Amino acid sequence: MASDYLSNFYAVAKQLTIPPKTILLEEGKVADKLYLIRKGCLRLFFYNDGKDITFQFFFEGDFVASFDSLYKRTPSLFYLESIEPAEVAAIKRNDFYAIIKDDPRWRQAYEEKLIDRFHSYQQLFLSRIKNTPQQRYEELLKEYPNIIQRVPQHYIASYLGITPVSLSRIRNRR
Question: pTM score > 0.90 for this model?
Fold first, then answer.
């Protein structure tokens, strides 16, 4: 995205420094902000039978929100949490939608981000069905080569749909 119109975003966004393990959105709450990660790592997760299930990671340059909740004003189905210290630009829903209404480049960029997110979820869904945990791990490393240094092993295991012990075995085979 060209920086000439990122200035519109930064003009209305609030710059936040977030400690690790900070919940930015709770399951059941309606999302009212969109975040642009300047530094750090965030994750989306939910609880299933008391187990914490991570289903997506976000890093520098990523926009993150519960897009469904933000758009439809419905309760979020998951939590958004910082994994490591993060610096984000947070923009309120109404300010964001005013920007994309006024600037077609923003609308296009937003649509591309939504399509990218849809693609990621489609890939995750298919990977869970057809790939072994080893293959899912290899895919993750290919997409995020530094993830092992930045994300705790139990979150990675959760994302892969395996136990931390199984992940340890997979890592030892490499």
Answer: no
